[in-house]
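User: My instructor asked us to take a sequence, write out its structure as tokens, and then describe one feature of it. I'm not sure where to start. Here is the sequence I was given:
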Amino acid sequence: MVNRVQSPYPPGWKLLWTAAFAVVIAAISSTRAWAQTPQPMPPGPPPNPERPPLAPVNQADENFSFLRDPANRTDLWDFLKYIPLNQSGDYYLTFWFENRSEYEWFQNEQWGQGPQTISGYW
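Assistant: Let's start with the prediction itself. The structure tokens for your sequence are:
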């Protein structure tokens, strides 16, 4: 005969505690989470209709005469894009650059997979 120790808990107490634990977890997970509500931001300044888009379609179409107005000079490099040559600002000098990145390539450097293209730009 096996001597069993009498449990001080009533029969079915494990099932009762498991059910109570499941109810508590379900109650906690189904409550509404309160997030921080951001303060509404004031609207920014209206866009300047005189300032054209930053990237023109063609370099020949670039016209930096809108930089005659100092309020339009917001970019770091605007001082190079518009240098007035007379008092009225009708004639101006522009220094700008064009970046054409090209990757470095070697003749047949891909271990026999064929030659690399020579017109690769990123």
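For the description part of your assignment, you could build on this observation: The mean pLDDT is 74. Try explaining in your own words what that tells you about the chain.
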